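Below is one protein, fold included:
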Amino acid sequence: MTLPSDIKIRSLSSLVLLSVLIFSLIRGETYFTVFLIIVSLFMFFEWMRLISKNYWIIRGFIASTGLAIILMIGSINSLSIITFFLSFLFLTIFSKLTIENYKMSSFGFIYISLSILTINWIRESDQGLLLLIIILSTIFVSDIAAYIFGSLLGGPKLFKVISPNKTLSGFIAAFIIGTFWFIFLTLNYSNSFNFYNIYVGFGIVFLSIIGDLLISSLKRKANIKDSGIFIPGHGGFLDRADSILPIFFLMPIYTVFMNAIENPSIIILG
């Protein structure tokens, strides 16, 4: 079986987006902050549009403005915390007055904001660049493996209602290749290796799939194929970030559990 005809478009747009991501990641500071602000802006607007088309532009503006201010402050302090809660409060009140599904607006703000802020926090930490590269590349590799092997081998559909294109072969390939990629990187860059690394790699792939299914479910309910139209062959920014968000959304909790708040890189790099 040959690959789908859109593989060239997907590959080219992925290459461009990946190049911008790598450039901003390596340069860090202002470059990375601007990148996060732009990406989060698109994701907020796409999220608000998915859950309700009533006043989604205003809700997206409130959410993206709040997060942009926090990112520009540059640190977690009293001002950034106040900005977060005021943005959340304002968005919740406005959403409750204008749409029925207002809770999803509030959740979307927390979900995307905390994920983006965690990514920014990790980048600024010791060995944060390496940690982000390991996590993000594991997500990308598992996603590509699922797409290629699912397209080539096909097989039973796992989530016919939520995401009918996902197959058993793609699901298995994502876990095997994604986890092995994570193990390969940790073997090369971490101070030590044990079975804990396998669990973490497996968990990263698992959460990436959960994030993908969450956005697929929202798109299915909204009767929308793609969250946006800005990335040729992929759709919107939320379509690309869906696998990334849940990992970084939950990572602060994991770092507290592992006593790694001061240096989150130790949870993987030792």
About this structure: The chain has one domain: 7-269. Strands lie at 157-159, 163-167. The first helix runs from residue 7 to 27.
